[in-house]
Input
Amino acid sequence: MAPPRLIEIVPSLLSADLGRLAELLREVRSGGAAWVSVDVMDGHFVPNLSFGPQLVRLIKRATPLRADVHLMVTNPETVAPWFLSAGADRVTFHLEAAADARALLRAVRKAGAQAGIAVKPRTSEAGLLPLLDEADAALVMTVEPGFGGAKFLDAVLPKISAVRRAVDSRGLGCRVQVDGGVNLATVERAAAAGADDFVAGQGIFAEPQPAAAVRALKRAAQAARDGGFAPPAAAEGAK
Output
């Protein structure tokens, strides 16, 4: 029997006050976070600009937390090495942008980091499923990427469940991750659909006590997980 899958709450620094970076990293770590998410946006693949490799270097100097770099860029083959050199512990790129996703997954792993593959809400999981054996994480976006604070899309829940079934049926170690609109109103639905990792920005950093927010999200996800894998039907969700 496979061991139980651990739940991870991954704070997204896109919603953090970077002027308090070291303090906030300490807070989320005290709440039980082991990872933080660094959203990298190029203004082309998504309509926003965000972080460069220097933020990863700052994280690695300030904390033992692991850096999960989410590349939302048109040229992940070029950009991934920048973040690997900066110390990224996982690099996740988009299936929609990669010229050869399998080759890039292998290259990231060869560099000593974990490799993740992501899809936007409107992208079918069909192209993702054959790559799960090369991936450490499969990220199903639960909002259209580009800006923090967007509304969680319940229509994506069946896609999460399809990825979960594929991972389990093949006995793979790939984590199923969700990102976007994750908060106490949505985390249970994502967990019931089969997610392992929950990237949350405003659901943590807009709260007065980020550490307590991490703990509350983990408790809610765990409660849904303990209820069993029960993928819900797609419906209109609420933030």
User: Anything to note?
Assistant: The first helix runs from residue 21 to 30. The chain has one domain: 8-226.
